[in-house]
UniProtKB/TrEMBL annotation:
<protein>
    <submittedName>
        <fullName>GH32 C-terminal domain-containing protein</fullName>
    </submittedName>
</protein>
<dbReference type="InterPro" id="IPR032313">
    <property type="entry name" value="DUF4980"/>
</dbReference>
<comment type="similarity">
    <text>Belongs to the glycosyl hydrolase 32 family.</text>
</comment>
<dbReference type="Pfam" id="PF08244">
    <property type="entry name" value="Glyco_hydro_32C"/>
</dbReference>
<feature type="domain" description="Glycosyl hydrolase family 32 C-terminal">
    <location>
        <begin position="613"/>
        <end position="730"/>
    </location>
</feature>
<dbReference type="Pfam" id="PF00251">
    <property type="entry name" value="Glyco_hydro_32N"/>
</dbReference>
<dbReference type="InterPro" id="IPR023296">
    <property type="entry name" value="Glyco_hydro_beta-prop_sf"/>
</dbReference>
<feature type="domain" description="DUF4980">
    <location>
        <begin position="183"/>
        <end position="274"/>
    </location>
</feature>
<dbReference type="InterPro" id="IPR013320">
    <property type="entry name" value="ConA-like_dom_sf"/>
</dbReference>
<dbReference type="InterPro" id="IPR018053">
    <property type="entry name" value="Glyco_hydro_32_AS"/>
</dbReference>
<dbReference type="Pfam" id="PF16352">
    <property type="entry name" value="DUF4980"/>
</dbReference>
<dbReference type="InterPro" id="IPR001362">
    <property type="entry name" value="Glyco_hydro_32"/>
</dbReference>
<dbReference type="InterPro" id="IPR013189">
    <property type="entry name" value="Glyco_hydro_32_C"/>
</dbReference>
<keyword id="KW-0378">Hydrolase</keyword>
<feature type="domain" description="Glycosyl hydrolase family 32 N-terminal">
    <location>
        <begin position="275"/>
        <end position="571"/>
    </location>
</feature>
<dbReference type="InterPro" id="IPR013148">
    <property type="entry name" value="Glyco_hydro_32_N"/>
</dbReference>
<keyword id="KW-0326">Glycosidase</keyword>
Length: 737
């Protein structure tokens, strides 16, 4: 139902005095009607409410009987209440606010048609809290109020009550709270509480805004970790941090400290031994993977302001072998077009864009009100990037999920190709100069998995028995084979315009585990190398934001080489860790030709550094067997082969810490297995992950786990089937020191 009441007159809203002579009620909704308001949309219902609506938790802290509640028709409804004009006669306006904390659910004060105050709730809560605006500057002027719910989905509602004018500033919440520092040290250390409500912080240098405001969870009641804000560039200057809102009791506000060092627990329990992690803060998708002048670049979705998703920047690291990484400063930061979502990078050898021969050109999604595609270039080996002056290069055509550009040079037709995720399809574009893009074709309707949004595509060739095939990776969230996100692929042909898939039993997944997402491949790998190199984000949106790490969240999978293989039934894309991370010759210890005991023990020399287990299993006609990775506390991951049901199952329900999310220890993680005479298994074990590869990666399962002690045993259960043989059991080290 949509309705709107329009006033014909502009009479001033009556101000009623209340007991305290100082205060004038603007609106307390106690008349039980919205007679003083113009209404649009259906979110606020026809009249003020007496409390919670069906499906809403009980409301706490409203005054009197009625309030404005935009939960009518649930969170998806939207609407606006606009007050009649009234005169500002006091120093402050105080009001109660509750509901969601989105920027799109807010109360706003307009003076002469200009917005002078706009406030959204600070926490997601049905408890109303008191907020105040300083309106001294507008005394004597006419003003209107707007209460807006323009947010769909979870917490897409607002509660407002008891709006008054007063000479008392009643809230203990301060708006645009500013702290200033004369900079003589390298960092300002910010105390963070992972669950605190998000607040905004804007940096000013000598009064000038630097960059855009970032969201931050400044500690309210206790400090969980510190984040360094690098201010070295402003030595000798005065900088200010302006917090959108602050509460007098926030302990974080009082403890921000200048420092020349940033000391944090880098070695925390679940920091992996040999997988890439950000130094601190949150990381998701790998981005801009390009090889250039002897360096593999890994950019990544990065929040330098906290260990949860938000404030997307491109973090940056370089490596000569994809194992030893050097952290570099943030490469691309948000701007007025939006935050910096996923994308790719190429080397523009022929200077097609005119930025310079050999420039690294990065493509990313500017995630503002709409998603658009932008570019930036680097002429100094990726150390600094300049954003193109005429961004975005691809405007939004009216598609909400329109992102993650992946670009490559298509030599046969001398042109660039971009694959872009466009809701439920991948759209291919072409360009001669990386700046002007033209749509070529769209792929994906009625094929593959579609139960979530399509993201992070990658189109690339692989050669199989001398013949070039084209592979298209498409990540999807949710809708993976075992819940949450996963990366599906298609194999087919590409003629420079259209991708045509081969008939295969889609959906096919590059990894059936729960923790390999948004992976794409490196560009510009030298022909002399010729490998197709890939890595993914080793986490899952189902629980990624709450995994039990501290200063940082998320690791990447091992870098892997991709190849086409035939699994006995159909063609697959196989993935296997790159040779740089070591092989069976690297510090091999237990080598047993035959399994003589059912449990193998792994020494600290191995589990403290990360290790690999490999062996061959010949079922010899029998169907079910399993092996278990376990520790002395009985925490374990069970791997089961069922050759009759043709599944390979990973069970991590008892793997260690699991109660941080109800989505984590979901029962069985299944992958399709083809019947073979023999299976080779490789399991890469790190502090908080296992990556299993069957038959050289024809089947892969990557699953994170949080054991409270390292797994130090491998136990076989052949269910008494002595016919099964387990051979060549090898334990070796990962090459990473
Ligand atoms: C995939 C994704 C991308 C997006 C990025 C935002 O994990 O949702 O589609 O660009 O993460 O961080």
């Amino acid at each position: 139902m949509r309705k709107s009441f329009l006033y014909s007159s502009f009479s001033l809203l009556a101000l009623t005095s209340c007991d305290n002579k100082d205060s004038l009620i603007i609106e307390d909704f106690e008349s039980g009607s919205f007679e003083n308001w113009t209404m649009e949309g259906d979110a606020f219902g026809e009249t003020p409410e007496k409390g919670a609506l069906p499906g809403q938790q009980p409301l706490v802290g409203l005054e009197g009987k009625f309030l404005a509640n935009s939960f009518h028709n649930g969170d998806d409804s939207r609407g606006t209440l606009t007050s009649k004009p009234f005169r500002i006669e006091r120093d402050y306006i105080n009001f109660l606010i509750g509901g969601g904390m989105s920027q799109d659910t807010y109360i706003e004060l307009l003076v002469n048609g200009q917005s002078v105050h706009k406030t959204h709730n600070l926490i997601e809560s049905e408890t109303l809290q008191l907020m105040s605006w300083d309106v001294k500057a507008y005394k004597g002027l006419e003003a209107t109020l707007r209460i807006v719910d323009n947010q769909r989905g979870s917490w897409g509602h607002i509660l407002v009550d008891a709006i008054e004018q007063s000479n008392q500033y009643k809230s203990n919440i301060m708006e645009n709270y500013t702290l200033s520092y004369d900079i003589s040290k390298k960092y300002l250390l910010l105390p963070i509480e992972d669950n605190a409500p998000e607040n905004t912080v804007q940096l000013l240098v000598n009064g000038e805004k630097i960059g855009t405001a970032q969201n931050i969870r400044l500690a309210r009641t206790h400090i969980q970790y510190w984040l360094p804000l690098s201010v070295e560039a402003y030595k000798g200057k005065k900088i200010s941090l302006v917090f959108g809102q602050a509460t007098k009791s926030d302990i974080g506000i009082n403890q921000i400290k200048p420092s020349d060092t940033f000391d944090y627990n880098y070695q925390e329990t679940y920091r992996p031994n040999y997988h890439f992690t950000p130094p601190y803060g949150w990381m998701n998708d790998p981005n801009g993977m390009v090889y250039h002048n002897g360096e593999y670049h890994l950019f990544y979705q990065y929040n330098p302001y906290g260990a949860r998703w938000g404030n997307m920047h491109w973090g940056h690291a370089v490596s000569e072998d994809m194992i030893h990484w050097r952290h570099l400063p943030v490469a691309i930061a948000p701007d007025e077009l939006g935050t910096i979502f996923s994308g790719s990078a190429v080397v523009d050898k022929h200077n097609t864009a005119g930025f310079g021969k050999g420039a690294i050109v990065a493509f990313y999604t500017s995630a503002g009100r709409q998603q658009t595609q932008s570019i930036a270039y680097s002429l100094d080996n990726g150390r600094t990037f300049t954003k193109y002056a005429h961004n975005p290069v691809i405007p939004n055509p009216g598609i909400e999920d329109f992102r993650d550009p992946k670009v490559f040079w298509y030599a046969p037709q001398n042109k660039w190709i971009m694959s872009l995720a466009t809701s439920q399809t991948i759209t291919f574009y072409t360009s001669k100069n990386l700046k002007q893009w033209e749509k070529l074709s769209e792929f994906g309707e009625n094929i593959g998995a579609h139960t979530g949004v399509w993201e992070c595509p990658d189109l690339f060739p692989l050669v199989y028995e001398g013949k070039t095939k084209w592979v298209l990776f498409v990540s999807i969230n949710p809708g993976g084979p075992n819940g949450g996100n996963a990366t599906q692929y298609f194999i087919g042909d590409f003629d420079g315009t259209t991708f045509t898939p081969d008939p295969l039993p889609y959906p096919l997944w590059i990894d059936y585990g729960r923790d390999n997402y948004a992976g794409v491949t490196w560009s510009n790998i030298p022909e002399s190398d010729g490998r197709r190199l890939f890595l993914g984000w080793m986490n899952n949106w189902d629980y990624g934001n709450v995994v039990p790490t501290h200063n940082f969240r998320s690791a990447m999978t091992l870098p892997r080489e991709l190849r086409l293989a035939h699994n006995g039934e159909y063609m697959v894309v196989a993935s296997f860790p790159v040779k740089e991370v070591g092989d069976e010759k690297n510090g091999a210890s237990i080598i047993m030709d035959k399994l003589t005991e059912d449990t193998l023990h792994i020494g600290p020399d191995y589990y403290n550094n990360g290790y690999v287990l490999s062996f061959t299993i010949k079922p010899n006609g029998l169907s079910i067997f399993d092996f278990t990775l376990q520790n002395n506390k009985g925490e374990k991951i069970i791997y089961t082969f069922d050759t009759d049901k043709k599944t390979f199952i990973v069970d991590r329900t008892q793997s260690g810490l699991a109660d941080f999310s109800s989505n984590f220890a979901t029962p069985l993680i299944k992958a399709p297995l083809t019947k073979k005479d023999s299976y080779t298994i490789h399991i890469w074990v790190d502090k908080a992950s296992t990556e299993v590869f069957v038959n050289g990666g024809e089947l892969a399962q990557t699953n994170i786990a949080f054991p409270t002690e390292p797994y130090n045993q491998l136990k076989f259960d052949l269910r008494g089937n002595i016919a099964i043989s387990v051979d060549n059991i090898t334990l070796y080290k990962v090459k990473h020191d």
